[in-house]
Specification:
The chain is mostly helical. It has one domain: Glycerol uptake facilitator protein. About 75% of the residues lie in helices and about 0% in strands. The chain is built from 9 helices and no strands. α1 crosses α3 and α1 (about 1-55) crosses α6 (about 160-175). The longest helix has about 55 residues, at about 1-55. It is globular, with a radius of gyration of 16 Å. The two termini are about 30 Å apart. It holds the Pfam family MIP. Belongs to the MIP/aquaporin (TC 1.A.8) family. Keywords: Cell membrane, Membrane, Transmembrane, Transmembrane helix, Transport. One of its GO terms (cellular component) is plasma membrane. It is a multi-pass membrane protein.
Length: about 230
């Protein structure tokens, strides 16, 4: 179990450092498309590099979906979720240390790729829009993950399918919330940035967990699962 927790922490660090790092360090150069690809490629890297150890959930919403789908225990979920949050914080700290090396960087002005919504945040979408986007997209994301990693799935392609799905979600929604679909990914940067990012964090915990839970329940009921 220790190896699994280390893999989950390291994988989530990769996700935050690559994805949020692309936004903070290279956002002006690569734009939203580049940022979306960075998040997707980070998942591909972690899935193929660490997936054999822990499954590379890297996301409490994914782990919750696995619990409700009957593919992991509650005790494992708790350990995974803690490790994922620790990895996200470490990833955000590394990113902050790098970004701080630029003369005109400020935490308040440039942030760490934290999620958000409303006035002053990207497209200034409403709370309702943020909740709907995060819940629906996490539901779809976890549904893809459960299917791609199921016994009937084509072997060897899960990491690619999952990474491309995350990239697609970012292509749709960066302007809405910055895209979370992952409470740990949101927690790391928000903890360091503080302020509004922490005040809005509940949205990026509640909505993704709800979406992941629904995906797990439908899979367990057989509605989104291939026939055994």
């Amino acid at each position: 179990m220790t190896k699994k927790l280390i893999a989950e922490a390291l994988g989530t660090l990769i996700l935050v450092l690559f994805g949020c790092g692309a936004a903070v360090l290279m956002g002006a150069q690569i734009g939203m498309t580049g940022i979306a690809l960075a998040f997707g490629l980070a998942i591909v890297a972690a899935a193929y590099g660490l997936g054999a150890i822990s499954g590379a959930h890297l996301n409490p919403a994914v782990s919750l979906g696995m619990v409700l789908a009957g593919r992991m225990s509650v005790a494992e979920f708790i350990g995974y979720a803690v490790a994922q949050c620790v990895g996200a914080v470490l990833g955000a700290l590394v990113l902050f240390a790098i970004a701080s090396g630029k003369a005109d960087y400020t935490l308040a002005g440039n942030g760490l790729g934290q999620n958000g919504f409303g006035p002053g945040y990207l497209g200034e979408y409403s709370l309702t829009a943020a909740l709907i986007f995060e819940a629906v997209m996490t539901f779809l994301f976890v549904t893809v993950i459960l299917g791609a990693t199921g016994p009937e799935a084509a072997p060897g392609f899960a990491g690619l399918a999952i990474g491309l799905t995350l990239a697609a979600i970012h292509l749709v929604g960066i302007n809405v919330t910055g895209v979370s679909v992952n409470p740990a990914r949101s927690f790391g940067p928000a903890l360091i940035v503080g302020g509004q990012a922490m005040a809005q964090l509940w949205v990026f915990i509640v909505a993704p967990l709800a979406g992941g839970a629904l995906a797990g329940l439908l899979y367990a009921a057989g509605l989104t699962r291939a026939e055994d």
